[in-house]
Design a protein that fits this description.
The complex is a heterodimer of chains A (about 70) and B (about 150).
Chain A (H helix, E strand, L loop, with lengths): L23 H9 L1 H8 L10 H8 L2 E2 L2 E2 L5
Antiparallel strand pairs in A: 1-2
Chain B lengths: L5 E7 L3 H9 L1 H4 L7 E3 L7 E5 L5 E11 L3 E8 L10 E10 L2 E9 L6 H23 L15
Antiparallel strand pairs in B: 1-7, 2-3, 3-4, 4-5, 5-6, 6-7
The chains are: A mainly alpha (about 70), B alpha+beta (about 150).
Chain lengths: ~70, ~150
Amino acid sequence: LSTTTNVDHFKPAAVYTIYIAATPEKVWQALTIPQEIRCIFSGRPERLQASSSTWLRIDHRRVNGARYHIAA
Amino acid sequence: MSKPEFVYTTYIETTPEKLWHALTDGDFTERYWFGARLRSDWKVGSSFEMVRSDGTVSDAGKIIEVDPPRRLAYTFVNLSDKFKNEFPALATFVLEPYGKLVKLTLTHEGFAEGSKFYSGISKGWPAILSGLKSLLETGRRLEIPYEALKFED
């Protein structure tokens, strides 16, 4: 595999799209503010940081029986 | 090269019975399916049609599986000339309750390689199912501009 990828020719195995009744600013905040990530994934009083080890840990969390997959 | 298959999963705060109704009641689908009413008696082997607001049929197929409120499957293909050589691919809905929510998984398979219809449904389903989720959870329509889907023509 080449270390450089031309995104125009990238054929992903899976793509997920969702339409949300919100503003771009609100969605951006929900994706980037650690406190809100905490609420979405666990609700536990810990401050998550977007390090690769944190993402891997989140990857194995289950919420209401549903497994969340995060591609870092 | 593997044949194209579309898979979409969404978690909706509702009951399996309400979700089943939302997927099979024409008056309800009209509110989130870009104005289309689904028309069928929902019996295995019966016809399945998507009816536009002007009464014309846009897509047609056949009911394959009905197991309320757990599994629903039907084939359909768009009737416009653009897709006249396409196979009627199989759409399967699986509803799984988890407490206060339902996990809805849609698979759509049976397309030929390079299918234009596959390209179309890959853009259509996320909008339809987002609208379904919003409507069931909030009671409000999600007005998705048609151009947001970015169909090629």
